[in-house]
Structures are given as structure tokens and as C-alpha cells.
Design a protein that fits this description.
Blueprint: H1 4-30, E1 32-36, E2 42-47, E3 52-57, H2 67-93
Antiparallel strand pairs: 1-2, 2-3
Helix pairs in contact: 1-2
């Protein structure tokens, strides 16, 4: 079916592609992503492994009479950061996925 030479060439290409994928995954893991709520009232910093590294809340947002507002802003910042990780992962690794298969 496949000649020995073709199989060896295909294996070399697979190893090369696997190394590129690993390099991109390492780069994503090292990258920091900062999710933001409107007016930067809440900032949520993540690494590419989706670990929350820092959460900053501006004091003027803390209203004991309205804790739901703070909750909403934190959720916006966290979701924004996670969406950035997803978009960057798709951009970097999407080229290695077969067509029609999302990451």
C-alpha cells in the first residue's frame, strides 16, 4: 500500500507537526490573559492553563448595598479572560486540527 520511503517521510512530518503543536501549547501556557469588566473596574488575570493568577477589584465598585453588581463585574472579567484563552488556542492550534473539528 505505502512504500517504505513514503511511510518514513510521513512519520517525519508527523513528528515535526507534533513538535510544533507542543511548542504552541507551551507558548499558550506561558501567556498571560487579562479579562476586563467595563471601565476596567474588575481585572482577572489568567495563564494559558486557565488558572486565575490575580483578581483586581477597584474599591469604588464595592457597594455593600448592591453585591450583585460586583458579582456581575467579576463574572464579566473572568469570562472575558477565558474567552481570550479559547480564541488564542483556536488561533494557534486550529491549523493542526482536521477541517470541521473545533478545538
Amino acid at each position: 500500500m505505502f512504500g517504505g520511503q513514503n511511510m518514513q517521510q510521513m512519520m517525519k512530518q508527523m513528528k515535526k507537526m507534533q513538535a510544533k503543536v507542543q511548542d504552541e501549547q507551551a507558548a499558550i501556557a506561558k501567556t498571560e490573559y487579562t479579562g476586563k469588566a467595563p471601565e476596567d473596574l474588575v481585572l482577572a488575570k489568567f495563564n494559558g492553563d486557565r488558572q486565575l493568577l490575580d483578581l483586581q477589584i477597584k474599591p469604588e465598585v464595592i457597594d455593600p448595598e448592591d453585591p450583585e453588581a460586583l458579582t456581575d463585574l467579576v463574572m464579566e472579567a473572568v469570562n472575558d479572560g477565558l474567552q481570550q484563552i479559547d480564541a488564542d488556542t483556536e488561533k494557534r492550534l486550529g491549523q493542526f486540527a482536521p477541517k470541521g473539528m473545533g478545538l
